Amino acid sequence: RILSPPSDSDANGIMSRAKVLTIDTMNPTVKKVEYAVRGPIVQRAVELERELSEGMKKPFAEVIKANIGDAHAMGQQPITFFRQVLALCSYPELLSDSTFPEDAKSRACRILQSCGGNSMGAYSASQGIDSVRQDVARYIERRDGGVACDPDNIYLTTGASDGIVTMLKLLVCGEGTTRTGVMIPIPQYPLYSAALAELGAVQIDYFLNEEKCWSLDITELQRAVNEARQYCNPRALCIINPGNPTGQVQSRQCIEDVIRFAAKERLFLMADEVYQDNVYAEGCQFHSFKKVLFEMGPEYAETVELASFHSTSKCYMGECGFRGGYMEIINMDDEVKDQLTKLLSVRLCPPVPGQALMDLVVNPPQPGEPSYGSFIKERTATLSALAEKAKLTEQVLNTVQGISCNPVQGAMYSFPRITIPEKAVKEATEKGQQPDMFYCMKMLEETGICLVPGSGFGQKDGTYHFRMTILPPTDKLKILLNKVKEFHQRFTQQYS
Amino acid sequence: RILSPPSDSDANGIMSRAKVLTIDTMNPTVKKVEYAVRGPIVQRAVELERELSEGMKKPFAEVIKANIGDAHAMGQQPITFFRQVLALCSYPELLSDSTFPEDAKSRACRILQSCGGNSMGAYSASQGIDSVRQDVARYIERRDGGVACDPDNIYLTTGASDGIVTMLKLLVCGEGTTRTGVMIPIPQYPLYSAALAELGAVQIDYFLNEEKCWSLDITELQRAVNEARQYCNPRALCIINPGNPTGQVQSRQCIEDVIRFAAKERLFLMADEVYQDNVYAEGCQFHSFKKVLFEMGPEYAETVELASFHSTSKCYMGECGFRGGYMEIINMDDEVKDQLTKLLSVRLCPPVPGQALMDLVVNPPQPGEPSYGSFIKERTATLSALAEKAKLTEQVLNTVQGISCNPVQGAMYSFPRITIPEKAVKEATEKGQQPDMFYCMKMLEETGICLVPGSGFGQKDGTYHFRMTILPPTDKLKILLNKVKEFHQRFTQQYS
Ligand SMILES: Cc1ncc(COP(=O)(O)O)c(C=O)c1O
Ligand SMILES: Cc1ncc(COP(=O)(O)O)c(C=O)c1O
């Protein structure tokens, strides 16, 4: 038993005392966490921006960050109505300002009346403001063609990220071969792998089918779960629909099959539906897991455990900085629900401005209200521009030899496959870099374009990709796509 | 090896399928979490409020929640300047509104210029907005009489809670007798015990000295760490100053002694300074750990690892709902810092409105600026009212036989010791309740006053306390204190 502190402090004097917290003595699960969307390539991009601003010469005039789904940062304008209500909630003296529309004022009053002391500065209930949860429930009912939604099943969150991590946290238990395993798509949004690493859960990969437009095959799910049962206890299945980074939109049939699979294999379903309004391709439509589940009848509707996630960060509003979101939880055991509420209470509450914004997203201006016209106009403009950019991206990328890009059916990203010449793969390997990281780093240094290598999301061995957002304004996106094209051709030539 | 899902689904048909996630199969560390500030007593208070609103007869007309440090919920008004800037940032069209003061506009412009796309809707850097971190650093330098502060050491957080949990997370490692132990004061703010339970770290209690006004004795720290070395690896020491729930303000000498102790015992220091502006008692003054550390010379200033925490939730602003906060980190190993940044990046960023608010707190109106006068007036009014209420609370409670209350030197709470008659202790025990929980529940049912029992914060065995905020408006506080007095007398009589 150690009865005194480690002794180098005594022996060598305090000045040479080793640090308490070092890379060798820190939490080992934290070390395993990786998060490519803000990884080394983005750090280099920030450096390059600083170098440019300090007048250093570069082969490009600006860094274009197409690495993250951050719409406002790319110039998208916020919805006027949302911001009016937020201003009114922040500074209620404005309620007597006649330039604000009446519907904005009435929304603001409703939100403030549900806040302690009528102030966004009060903590809310840990599960979120009651009236916001009610509005979310009504939104879900409308969205799902009348399928009932109980506000008690709604939990407001600090962005969808918070909800996802919290649900995963509840699910983790066991050791060794009974350790919780969680199935995630590959390619995935790296929040999932990061959270699983931190929680010490087992990541079970199922591969999306790139040849079939990144669709989900039940046979692949079956393969993955069968293999995983050899070494862990698979307990949850995560689906991202529409997909990030892959941009596919799941068919209704496929969702039904997934639900049946989850029921058969006894898996808790987690449906990440933060891109539910981002569907562009003709013939594609968003179907919520909740709706499909309930349409499958009580055998499923009353048994399959489902958590679904939404956020203020994506869709047409793109309000990432407010960290708003919610999760809906279906068929969760009552005792576990109590534990969830308790766990959330430790962090006190999600940010109230984010809750207010979530309220506006689920309860936007209605026909007949003064702000309805401008709201619809702004929303439509943003979504049509995204649809156009989705198409443009796919088209231009597919003109490049050595790049092949599935249709961007939804979400905000293209995830094209790229051919990397042998010689480049070899050079990367010698550098200890993933070949697509090598490729993206080179692109960044030569063109100023910041993308995320496919290896950050996971991909089939021997295939290479990058993820590029479709968010830059159309004219900038065109320039960007052309630069990517030229770079790819140059790179291919250089390493052939 | 399990090769198929647990079989009750097959044997009994899907309808009777047991749940995937139950109290027995959920994360066991989550089950261990407790958080009294929002525990059963608060749930009952919410129920009572609903019953009242439904017209049910009660021995009181309203529920008064003195359980949580939530100033706005208790009627405290926000600082006008802060809310003006937030409204401007939310809806920048207001920048052309001549009714807003120029200094509010220039602050809003500065914040927006540091946001991606000039919008609070963009994700910020994970560590927080650069210019806000710079403002925080300058604030700390002013506060600490010129001791240097590097913005690179500042991390903006989602309330102080987020920073505290994140730091604890980094520190946890080892198993069995090498498992990380963390020293926390008893009584404590229960975020600490909750986070340690969830992380599976060992909680090491050191007791504050109630007889000496809840002061901190180094001999008690020494006792605690010596004993703990028998069964774990003590790595961190948490201090809450000014204290929650205990309201004491640490002397400069004591802080120096604590730092020396941490250096000697090789402990990472965590200083929770969210109440740094809440100091009321004459002769008391807030001293930051950072300042004292640097005044102790390089032997300490260059070696002792320190994280200190601040928040927008307390002090004179009380903006809890915005979830703003920061931590400053001193002498942290560079590699660990990289790991910290990476870990934070998974959650993308703290809420931007909370960051903006933090910026205003550290960079309020200056002499000569148009809003300076009203800012000072509002701040002074709030802080003087708090000082008055701190005194009032102590005085009234000390008139009650069987209640004894230390001076409320700082923070927002009184934590009086209460005598609970033997008979009441017995009845509580039979009910399986802590005696002070029994007492507080009874008070809630009879008077509508919602307090938190001392057992939720920890206390010496055989002593009982409750925590009561000093936040209700003065007239309401007087009524409340009288009701507490009457209740205590009735309770004592009933059980004597
Ligand atoms: C699939 C997916 N889920 C969740 C998130 C988290 O978003 P937020 O936490 O901002 O709501 C993102 C963000 O990009 C995402 O792409
Ligand atoms: C001592 C102490 N630390 C930290 C916190 C967390 O506050 P927040 O997360 O709202 O900043 C509180 C809240 O009451 C507290 O009392």
Automatic annotation (TrEMBL), chains A, B:
InterPro entries linked to this entry: ALAT1/2-like, Aminotransferase_I/II_large, PyrdxlP-dep_Trfase, PyrdxlP-dep_Trfase_major, PyrdxlP-dep_Trfase_small
EC nos: 2.6.1.2
SUPFAM superfamilies named among the record's database cross-references: PLP-dependent transferases
Source taxon at top rank: Eukaryota
Top EC class, one word: transferase
GO MF terms held by the record: L-alanine:2-oxoglutarate aminotransferase activity; pyridoxal phosphate binding
Segments forming domain Aminotransferase class I/classII large: 118-483
Keywords of the record: Aminotransferase, Pyridoxal phosphate, Transferase
Catalysed reaction, written as an equation: L-alanine + 2-oxoglutarate = pyruvate + L-glutamate
Required cofactor names: pyridoxal 5'-phosphate
Transmembrane parts of this sequence: none
Annotated GO biological process: L-alanine catabolic process
CDD domains: AAT_like (cd00609)
Protein's pathway: Amino-acid degradation; L-alanine degradation via transaminase pathway; pyruvate from L-alanine: step 1/1
Pfam families assigned: Aminotran_1_2
Family: Belongs to the class-I pyridoxal-phosphate-dependent aminotransferase family. Alanine aminotransferase subfamily.
Assembly: Homodimer.
Protein name, as recorded: alanine transaminase
Organism in which the protein naturally occurs: Oreochromis niloticus
Higher taxonomy: Eukaryota, Metazoa, Chordata, Craniata, Vertebrata
